[in-house]
Amino acid sequence: QVQLVESGGGLVQSGGSLRLSCAASGRTYSSYSMGWFRQAPGKEREVVAAISGSGYNTYYADSVKGRFSISRDNAKNTVYLQMNSLKPVDTAVYYCAATVTRRIRAYTLPNDYDYWGQGTQVTVSS
């Protein structure tokens, strides 16, 4: 069993920055792929960014390329999402996800992941 706890969400003005953290505990698999997803009201959950177990491979949704950066610290079992130049359209609940069976690529589908955090709200005001 793996527990994921997100932190770092909040209210920020357009153009501002936030850094989300996701700490994994329990039967941690620090070498496996992880991802960040988000879900806005009335919309489906979508991938924001993902990272392979080694950290070598990353993926970014087109909407966040050049603004967001995903990274991981395997020694701390933590993955980060640095969000810069935030826009009101980035407002959503952000979820961290972990897989305990995949490590090679940065996986982008919700079904690729086995465990999810409870989510952290990010609100960007105009």
What does this protein structure show overall?
The chain has 126 residues and is an all-beta fold. The protein has strands spanning 2-7, 10-13, 18-26, 34-39, 46-51, 58-60, 68-73, 78-83, 92-98, 115-116, 120-125. Strands 2, 4, 5, 6, 9, 10 and 11 form a seven-stranded mixed sheet that branches. It has a four-stranded antiparallel sheet with strand order 1-3-8-7, with no helix packed on it. It is globular, with a radius of gyration of 13 Å.
* Number of strand segments: 11
Q: What is the molecular shape?
A: globular
Number of discrete helical segments: 0
Q: List low-confidence stretches.
A: none
| Average residue pLDDT | 94
Category from helices, strands and their pairing:
mainly beta
Ends: how far apart? 40 Å
What is the beta-strand fraction? over 45%
Q: Biggest sheet: strands, sense, closure?
A: 7 strands, mixed
Q: What Rg is obtained from the alpha carbons, in whole angstroms?
A: 13 Å
> What is the helix fraction of residues, given as a range?
under 10%
Note the run of SSEs as H and E: EEEEEEEEEEE
